[in-house]
Amino acid sequence: MLPRAERTGRAGRAALVLGVIGVLLAAADTYVIVLALPDMMVGVGLDVDELQRAAPLVSMFLLGYVVVLPLVGRVSDVTGRLPVLTGSLLVFTAGSLLTASADGVAGAVVGRFLQGAGGGALVPVTLALVADLWPPDRRGVPLGLVGAVQELGSVLGPLFGAAILAVADWRAIFWVNFAVGAVLFAGTATVRRRRGESAAAALDAEGPPAGRFDVVGLVLGLGALVCAGLAVNRPSGLEQSVQWGELLVPRLDGHEWTTPLALAAYVLTIAFVVRELTARRPLLPLRRTPAVLRAADLPGALLLGVALGGIVLTFATADPAVELMAPSGPWLLAGSAVALAAFAWRQRRAAAPLVPPDAVRAMPAWGALVVSLFVGAALVAVVVDVPILARTVVPGSSQLDAALVLLRFLVALPVGALLGGWLLRRYGPALLAGGGMALGTAGLAIMATWGMGSLDGLIDDGVLVAAGLGFGLAIAPVNAALLAAAPRSTHGVATALLVVARMVGMLAGLSALTAIGLRKLYSVQAGIESPAVLCPDSPTDCGPYDDAVRQAIVEQLQATFTGAAVCAATAALGAVLLLRHRPRTVEA
Questions:
Q1: Is 80 exceeded by the pLDDT of residue 441?
Q2: When comparing pLDDT for 516 and 183, which is higher?
Q3: pLDDT digits (tens, 9 = 90+) for 190-216
């Protein structure tokens, strides 16, 4: 039999591998909607021109991704990483099932919310697991790997969606997510058979003894998910089937909750809960749920979730082409301010607050949050505006051509993340993160000079690659600085706040930078003569007017890249000033 320490290490690394795969799956799912959205709209009963009604398919995913992170991170500090990893995969799998089988907008929106909540929770738990398994001076490479995998999703997501859509419809994308998520969920359960009892592993604090995982509970849980998803969404293929259609026929007229599938879902859910409450080795620590939520400060998490939700909806539901924030944005932000004030009051008075005072007290810890915020704001400008610039300055280019231009940056990003993790062996996080963001700043400054005739040579490709490497270089050092400064007992909630900071930076940055660009666009457009003046003989086919409009769009994007360069420079300066001190890690 293997020694306890070796069993602990092997189980921890097995859990980390599953977590990393889950992060890749969730990251790809974030971007797969880009290609699948038009077909999804038709599939859930929307016309292709009803983009406003389809907006929740995107915004609710982001909402789920952000609002649950602090609670999930804190729960992982209290109960251990493995139960939270298992639960997150279960939620993601359930969301994938609901989305795949949805015949209406409501079912798809709920499914996307659950996918966001489960997928987003995987990131901080996996980062915290790295800190549990490696000492501060050896975390660079695994942190770089997690960061690289997260960024790789932006490349693989659209490619995965395109490959599936080439041979099947959009539902197949989420059925694949369901299948992979179910396998990962089962995999995390098997890790318990090999885990050690050492508390240092932080896999399953006060959890069940090692041994075989609960196969019966796994079957009951997945069965309940499948039956519930099919009963709620009532897929037309099943409903119209001669052989299986009876499963969706109510046993009481007019009461859809009495279909055989719905009844089976109730029975399986109850059986799963009973099994989890009585099993010696349950999949989820349901017996400890009330105590865990008290220790994790559920009221504080709800207040912070409301505050973050208002911020997300303010920017995620806005049309960046015409407005800085959604029409309801002022009210949403006011509600967020009230909730944030209530959260601060709760933090000062709770016996066990959601964010322990020492979690981000040290300068490198809260400095990492500031740097991550500005990194997100700068990064989003490249991802969104480079394809627009490509289609503007290269006549006749398609959406695919524009995406291939961006691919140079996106491929360099995970490479930079791995490189940054490896270089942490020799250099401090302040130098690496600052240098990486300085390189990103230089790339954005050059992009701000691009105009008609750009993006047609190796030099421009090199700029995109260099910028991607620069942004990637900053990922692992920022994570490492936060984890080195925060006590071990707060790693989960600290990394969750880091992810939240980056997401909020991306959302707010997109709106703010687009607003800057639009001001420039309107200023330039005011000086363009009308087609009737420029081309009195053929105003409907006026080349000079079209050229002037394209130039106005280019100047708009140049202003946006300039603003992004300022954000990147702020991140570089913040990294040098705020991440330079690395106090001894508190292992409490």
A1: yes
A2: 183
A3: 775 555 433 334 455 544 444 455 678
Residues of the chain with CATH 1.20.1250.20: 1-197, 357-527+542-587
Residues 6+ apart with CB under 8 A from 523: none
Q: What is the 3-state secondary structure (H, E, C) of 204-253?
A: CCCCCCCCCCCHHHHHHHHHHHHHHHHHHHCCHHHHCCCCCHHHHCCCCC
- In order of 128, 537, 548, 551, the CA distances from 543 in angstroms are 57, 12, 9, 12
DSSP 347-379: HHH-SS-SS-TTSS-SHHHHHHHHHHHHHHHHH
Assigned fold of 1-197: Growth Hormone; Chain: A; (1.20.1250)
The H or E element that residue 168 is part of is: none
Supply the DSSP string of 516-542, one letter for each residue: HHHHHHHHHHTTSPPHHHH-TT-TTS-
User: Which of 386, 551, 549, 382 lies closest to 455, judged by CA?
Assistant: 386
Q: Per the CATH hierarchy, to which homologous superfamily does domain 357-527+542-587 belong?
A: MFS general substrate transporter like domains (1.20.1250.20)
